[in-house]
Amino acid sequence: MAAIERLAGELAALRDRDGRLFLLGVGGSAGNCSHAVNDFRKLCGIEAYSPIDNVSELTARTNDEGWDTVFAGWLEVSRLSPKDGLLIFSVGGGDAERNISVNLVRAIDLARERGAKVFGVVGRSTGYTARHGLPRFPPGSADATHQMVSAGSAARAVFLDRDGVLTVPQFRDGRSFAPRCLEDFRLYENAAEATAQMKAAGFRLIVVTNQPDVGYGRTPLDTVEEMHRRLTALLPVDAIEACYHRHDADCDCRKPKAGMLHRAAAQFGIDCTRSFMIGDRASDVKAGRAAGCRTIFIDLDYRDEHPAGADFVVKSLVEAADVVLREA
Do residues 280 and 293 both lie within one domain? Predict the structure, then answer.
């Protein structure tokens, strides 16, 4: 199961970088390819293809160019790139020296030359796919595919508070406040690197922020929206959920309620039980726990209430990202 979960994470990362997945197999494994293409496209939102589904091209290439290079030729014309992936279904995995599934060997060689990742569902640890692919596990390929799809169809996310996590807050009397003008709006120095690492690990990045100064009339909505445009231009976030209501508003979105997290989870198909909430206030931890996330509290020594029940306590976003990458 660990190999399946690792592969599901790799495929989620491929989807998030807009990569394509190419599936290859021969014999019975070819049927698994067609089945898997349907599931990956329909259930996971991954752009997936297999030459098995274009019999005319497959037979023409076999007739004109030969069986050994049929898959490599198809990948060539598909313009396989470094952000794409190659998934092999095979019992033996290919062996050029023994003239076994040489077409798979040639396809794997091309993928490695292009910098595309190679994944394998194979039955033998001695085949070419097992030696050069990422997570490998034995066939029972239909079951394995269903488990990958099930694990990969629900995305993982890191929910992030804004001020005190991504952006530098204003401090007065030992308390933190959101900046009220664009001149005071700035990111923490390592925010770009930390978020990029989590994004590369396959997580959706969702900012969830209370901005009651809008509701009180202290900060214009246009100013906050411009702050968010700048933030999304500088960091690889997928969405920003903001609550503009006053503290005394009986809304479902304001943290410590989990409304913003639930809304993003519904939009992006996020499994909150496989996700994290990072914040610098007790309300962030409470919202994360209410949504079912693991929670990471960034302790900036405020006078405010410290949360009970945070899963992890750190001192910076960089340390929080380390926890996410370690615990994922």
Answer: yes
Tell me: the pLDDT tens digits for 6-30?
Answer: 677 788 888 888 899 999 988 878 8
Domain boundary pick from 153, 169, 190: 153
Does residue 313 share a domain with residue 171?
A: yes
By annotation, the residues acting in catalysis are 161, 163
Residues of the chain with pLDDT under 70: 1-6, 91-96, 122-154, 174, 305
* Spatial distance between the Cα atoms of 311 and 321, rounded to a whole number of angstroms: 14
Torsion (CA) 12, 50, 39, 83 in degrees, nearest 10: 10
Using one digit for the tens of pLDDT, what is the confidence trace for 66-119?
A: 989 999 999 999 999 999 999 988 866 666 677 778 889 899 999 999 999 888
Burial of 269 (0-12, 13-18, 19+ CB in 10 A): middle
Dihedral, CA atoms, 155, 90, 38, 35, nearest 10 degrees?
Answer: -130
Place of tokens 């079912």: 292
Provide the residue range defining the domain that includes 202: 156-327
Task: Specify the CATH number for the domain of residue 95.
Answer: 3.40.50.10490
Distance CA 76, CA 111 (A): 9
Q: Can you give the pTM of this predicted structure?
A: 0.57
Q: Are residues 225 and 239 in the same domain?
A: yes
